[in-house]
Amino acid sequence: MTDLRSVTVLVPGRLHQHSIDRIGQAFDMIRIARADPALLTDAQKASVRGIAASPSPGDTFIGPDVMRALPNLEIVANFGVGYDGVDANFAGRHGIMITNTPDVLTEEVADTALGLLISTVRELPAAESWLRVGRWRSEGNYPLSRLTLRGRKVGIFGMGRIGLAIARRLEAFGLPVAYHNRRRVEGLAYEYHDTLKGLATAVDTLVSVVPGTAPTEKAVNAEVLTALGPDGVFVNVGRGSTVDEPALAAALANGTIAAAGLDVFANEPDVPQSLLDAPNTVLLPHVASASQHTRRAMADLVVDNLVSWFSQGRALTTVPETAQVRPE
Ligand code: NDP
Questions:
Q1: What angle, rounded to 10 degrees, do the helices at 161-172 and 106-122 form?
Q2: Most exposed residue of 157, 241, 293, 296, measured as fewest CB within 10 angstroms of its CB?
Q3: SS3 29
Q4: Residue closest to 55 by CA, chosen among 36, 19, 83, 30
Q5: 23 CA to centre of own chain
């Protein structure tokens, strides 16, 4: 059996402390400030067999440059179910395993999505500010919310693990659900639309929970928002890259849709001023899975994947692009 202490795992940039503690105990760990091979000596580059990281599409991206620089790299354990911070297609073509952290965060993200939806429709953050700044006392009751969940029909863009958990909650709220994926989910009774525009036309509330990929890039555009309509509410807990943000800001400003609740943005942590200024947005700093409980479970799964790969020769939660990768 492999002595894990002889296996070198690189941790570039920030990572959950629990992952770092476990990797430090089990493996030979190298930490560097960011995913930049120039920060490693040649000997270190040759020694690295695994990476554990919480990368993102920006400057912490784990792309071909990083993977090519590490000739003995076997696995990248990604913190998060979304793995748009790693070039998984390149990894798949070069025999490098990529793992993510599905399932352990599904219910948490679905909970947050519902919280964000209700906050957006019923203006709960604005109502709370009303109380905190003393307007309840000085001016009386907070104005009645223009919007309600009652009578809404919700479209889910991305009926995967999290989309389904959101749909189940919406059912309990008494709301009809429809969805769009590239493929109909077999055995699922919810109304299916084979285009996003078709879904947006059929509903007044759109919840996006698709991965950030080339095909989903700016998929929620002016046309989709127009189809959603003037009572439309858009909620995004997927990825910011899936939204044409200037088109969304314009739609919110000119009444093309009524309101938006956003947990994710195209260029985090920068949030467009137009969205910050809009009175009909509820904005969260990418916190959908961010409880201590769930982040710890994700941190464990990152390390469990590394341990399983190097001790059993198999990963636990493989992304589809690298499903065929086997240890040498
Ligand atoms: P899944 O892979 O289970 O679901 C993704 C769904 O999106 C699938 O149903 C898939 O169906 C659909 N989809 C993918 N590409 C397209 C496309 N081009 N057009 C239409 N539908 C598409 O993932 P999860 O539910 O576990 O997670 C979804 C995403 O949520 C993650 O990738 C991540 O980006 C995001 N997320 C955000 C979090 C946050 O903190 N805000 C936390 C956790 C996740 P099909 O393949 O049939 O098209």
A1: 50
A2: 293
A3: strand
A4: 83
A5: 24
The DSSP H or E segment spanning 78 is strand 75-78
Catalytic residues: 239, 268, 286
pLDDT value of residue 122: 98
Residue 1 has pLDDT above 80, yes or no: no
**Looking at domain 106-283, what is its CATH homologous superfamily?**
NAD(P)-binding Rossmann-like Domain (3.40.50.720)
DSSP per position, 204-222: SEEEE-----TTTTT-B-H
User: Fold identical between 4-102+292-322 and 106-283?
Assistant: yes
How far does the centroid of ligand 1 lie from the alpha carbon of residue 170, in Å? 18
Q: Measuring from each residue's beta carbon to the nearest atom of ligand 1, which residues come in under 6 Å?
A: 81-82, 102, 105, 109, 158-163, 180-183, 209-213, 215-216, 237-239, 263-264, 286, 288-289
Residue 53 pLDDT class (50, 70, 90 cuts): very high
pTM (2 d.p.): 0.98
Instruction: Write down the pLDDT at residue 58.
Output: 81
CB 59 within 8 A of CB 34: yes
CATH of domain 4-102+292-322: 3.40.50.720
